[in-house]
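Interim report, section 4.2 (structural modelling).
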Amino acid sequence: MFAYVVRRLAAAIPVLIVASFLAYALVALSGDPLEPLKLRNPPAPPRTIELETQRLGLDHNIFVRYWDWLWGVLHGDFGQSVQSNYDIGANLGRSATVTLRLVLVAMLLALVLAILTGVLSAVRQYSRFDYATTFAGFVFLAMPSFWIAIVLKDLAVRYNRASGTTVFYTIGETSQNYESMSAFGKFGDVVGHLVLPTIALALISYAAWSRYQRAAMLEVLNSDYVRLARAKGLTWRKVLVRHVLRTALIPLVTVTALDIAGILGGAVITETVFNWNGLGRMLLNGVARADTNAVAAWLLLAGLVVIAFNVIADSLYAVLDPRIRHE
Amino acid sequence: MSDTAARPVAETFAVRERTQTQLVVRRFLRHRAAVTSLAIFVVVVLFAYVGPLLWKYDYTDITDDLSQSPSFGHPFGTDLIGHDTMAQVMRGTQQSLKIALAIALIGTVLGALWGAIAGLYRGKLDFLMMRIVDIVLTLPTIAVAAAVAAQGVGGSQWWSIAVILGALTWPYVSRVVRGVVLSLREQEFVEAARALGAGNARIILRHLLPNALGSIIVVATLTIATGILGEAALSFLGVGVQAPDTSLGLLVSLNRDAVNTRPWLFYFPGLFIIFIALTINFIGDGLRDAFDPKQTRVRQ
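Predicted structure of the assembly:
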């Protein structure tokens, strides 16, 4: 298994390098970071523009720039940002811990809910529960993530106002006085701020995943080996958990891994609604300034996360399906 | 009864011959949610494209009614400077639909060709083409689209957003089409075509793609729904459709702070996004069932 994981990671390196080059070239070629300086009134002195061009390495061609950037990243130096005194590496690290917290908790919530709903609506197919969750799933799938987030936020604000307390936190990833809190208080504060964005982000994935889980469960439930297991006298519960659910989890693992990139994108939007200072703000700030080094570093991290989850998914296949063994 | 008895036996029990298309249409019409959705979707399209011709206000008109809640004169209310919200939603729906359809068209044509070529040739070419698909899928669509769209490439016209999102959508389509083509290419009719001297281009365009049409139509339909949500997300981040033009996503985004004070500004355009995406997903679901030859009248 360990050898397999290492091999998969090694195979992912070329994909990651090409993807990061594409991302780098796209951002670098689509915008000019010095445009604000050049269009400034009164115009910036030519010497300033020249110095900025050199500082950002804009006088080199795209391949040289990418190579310099990649070499730096591999040595822990994420390069110069368009904003002076902005440490891309430090900001990426801090934002990532904030955002990945949200992404992981939301994924966990979506998975647990999706499995529960999928199993129940497959076991009780065409029941009222099945119809209700199916319809709710379709509605969630049709909702833009920012719409869900804004509506949730509005409901929370109304509730807070009506009750005169702050039950739900609607702004930021932590409170203003976070640094002065005790360790326990800090934990509570983080969890409190996570609640609404997590629900907003989880709902859409939940909708899609519960559909997949239901379909997979139905397929397995109608298979011969389940009938055999029942015929041999196994209890319904044992058949359901050991034989049906275990097999029916395989498609969900695939879909979850495929959706990671989409969830990261969703997190950008959710964070914007709830004014978080995470990866979302970092990306939008970088994008607005045509900050190639910052945006490329962001996309490289996103690519790494996606690949990591795909490797985890592949390893999970072996756990769920005894026929798959990664020798 | 007597009428039936009078007919020759062969005619009574004969099954009328139906073409593939007739079968698909019949199966689709039995899917109640899909048919209802199709009707609603047609109404929304008419609202967006015919509505502005009949409605007294244009989306650029500034009326004297400021911040009015919905009334007979302004069914969807008005905004802070007196725009009629219904006229704006009409224009927004128009633009959003146009962008979503263009995304679906670009994504489907590119993806279908890409998937069919990879599936037919297999081997090294397939491996290379699918790694390119992996590369695109590794990057979050919204992030890449925002990075490119923010630089105002193509002057932030509606089609530039469609091209950017379409260029990030095709990998999903190509995976589906490749899967179908991999099984089709082993069938006898492809062998027969080859024996008759058909080249690869002819096999792809005349044999593989038409036979994969069911899957392609289904995935294309679902692409419209993701397209409309993608446009809305980009406009929400401020890098999609730009004022003075408008779209449903932009309308929701501009009015997000009004959700509490003037909810009609926020909810009407949002409901249209949901209606469109919801009906299209149901239509896609109906098409999937309709194109599936294993589908029988009795559901197992």
